Amino acid sequence: MSEPSAAHSEEGRRPIPSRERLAASAAEYDAKDELRGKRAEFVLDDTVYLDGNSLGALPVSVPAEVADTVAREWGELRIRSWTESGWWTAPERIGELIAPLVGAAPGQVVVGDSTSVNVFKAVVAAVRLAGGPAAGRDEILVDSATFPTDGYIAESAARLTGCRVRALPVGEMAAAVGPDTAAVLANHADYRTGRLHDLPGLTAAARAAGAVTVWDLCHTAGALPVGLDDHGVDLAVGCTYKYLNGGPGSPAYLYVAHRHQDAFDSPLPGWNSHAEPFGMLPGYEPADGAVRGRVGTPDILSMAALEAALAVWDGVSVDAVRAKSLALTDFFLTCVERYVPEGRVASVTPAAHAERGSQVALRCADAEAVMGELIARGVVGDYRAPDVLRFGFTPLYVGFAEAERAAWVLAEILRG
How many other β-carbons are positioned within 10 Å of the β-carbon of residue 384? Predict the structure, then answer.
C-alpha cells in the first residue's frame, strides 16, 4: 500500500497525516487476533479504555456471582457458608487460580489483605529468612523509583528488624547486593515508565549473595509471563485489580516459594494462619505451607468478585497475551510517531521488548490537561506527575483499532 497523502487544515500549518494506512493495518491485525473473542467477556462500551494498568474492566460474569454470594450464600446459608460455600478455603483456592499466571506451582500463593500489607509481611520475613542483623545482614535494598508505599513499608520493616534501607535503581541492584544485604525489594515493572526490570538476573545475583528477593508484580501479572518458580524467586506480592480485573480494592496475593515455607516467619501472625485456628490457643503455631501468609478473616465479597473475574483466563495462554501486548504497544508507538506533531511527546517506555511491560508512557507538556481532554473525548488513560501520560494495554480486551484511535485523538488535541 502506498504512503498516505497529507492534508492541510489551514494554510501554513503542519500537514495532517492521513489515517488510511494505519487504520487498515489495525483492522487487519484485529481480524487475526486470537484473543479478540475475549473482549465479549467484559463490560465495555465505545470508550477506548487504556487504564487497565490501574483498574481492569469488569468481567461480565462477576455481577451474578457476587449477587449469589450476597443473596444465597450470605442471605440464606449465612454462617454455614464458611464450610458449605468454601469461604474458609477461598484464600488458597483463589491463589491456585493466580499461580499459573505468575509461573508458580500449586501450594505457593495465598490471596488476602492489600499489596501494602503483603509487602510488609514479605520484607520482614525476607530479613528473617536471611538471618538479619544477627547474621551481619542489616541492609534492605529498595527500588529508588518504587511506588511510594513500597518505600514507606520498607522503612517501617527496617525499623522493626534493625536494618537500614538503601535505595537505588533496580538496574544497579545486582551489582550492589552483598554480604550485608538481607532483602531486596524490587518492582518487576516501573509504574511510571512501564520499564520491565531483569527479574531473573537480579534474583540470581541476590541468591548468590545470600540475600532474599521480594518482587512486586502489580504491573506485570496478567500482562506477561513472570516465571516465579523458573527463576528461583523467593517471595512475591501483587494486586489483583489491574491486569487480573478483580475489581476496585480486590485482595492482593502473596507467593512463598516451597523451599521457604517452613521458615517463613510472618510479622503478622493471625488466627487464620494458625495451625489450629479454631483451637483458640494462647500461643501461636504457624500452619504449614503458604497458609501461614494469611492473617485475619478473608473479605468474602471481594474474594467472590475476584474468583469470578479470574474465569476469563480459562483457555488463555500468558505467552499469547504477551505477544499481543508487545504488538499493541509497538503499533500504538508507531501511530503516535506518525500522527502526533513532532516534538510534542516523547516516549519514556523502552523500545526494546525485553525491557517493556504492557504500558506506554509519554512525556508531554501540560500532561494533566491533555489527559483530561483525552478522557473527555472518550480515550481513558491516566496522568502521573509531573508530565507523564500513561496508556495501559490489557490484551484481553484492547484491540488495535482502539490503539490507533487513541493515537489519533491525542494528535488532534496536540495539534490544537
Answer: 15
On the 0-12 / 13-18 / 19+ scale of CB atoms within 10 A, 412 is middle
Instruction: Tell me the three cell numbers of residue 87.
Output: 469461604
Beta carbons within 8 Å of 46's beta carbon, 6+ residues apart: 378
Q: What is the DSSP string of 318-334?
A: HHHHHHHHHHHHHHHHH
Strand partners, 365: none
H or E, element range at 26 = helix 20-32
Q: Are 157 and 182 within 8 A, CB to CB? A: no
- The upper half-sphere exposure of residue 327, i.e. CA atoms within 13 Å in the direction of its Cβ, equals 20
Helices (H) and strands (E) in the chain, counts: 12, 15
Cα–Cα distance between 21 and 37 in angstroms, integer? Answer: 25
Phi, psi of 208 (to 5 degrees): -65, -30
The catalytic residue positions are 147, 216, 241-242, 390
Q: Which residue type, as a one-letter code, is found at position 68?
A: D
How far is residue 346 CA from its own chain's centroid?
24
The pLDDT tens digits of the residues spanning 325-379 come to 999 999 999 999 999 999 999 999 999 999 999 999 999 999 999 999 999 999 9
- The mean of the pLDDT values for the chain is 96
| Type of residue numbered 10 | E
Does residue 183 register a pLDDT over 80? yes
Please give the pLDDT value at position 3. Answer: 35
CA dihedral 356, 359, 363, 367 (to 10 degrees): -170
pLDDT above 70 covers what percent of the chain? 97
- Residue 127, CA distances (Å) to 118, 141, 151, 236, 380 in order: 14, 11, 15, 14, 40
Strand, coil or helix: 148: helix
Query: Do β-strands 48-49 and 379-380 pair in parallel, antiparallel, or remain unpaired?
Result: parallel
**Pairwise CA distance, residues 132 & 25, whole Å:** 56
HEC letters along 91-143: HHHHHHHHHHHCCCCCCCEEECCCHHHHHHHHHHHHHHHHCHHHHCCCEEEEE
Rounded to an integer, what is the distance from CA 65 to the centroid of its chain?
A: 24
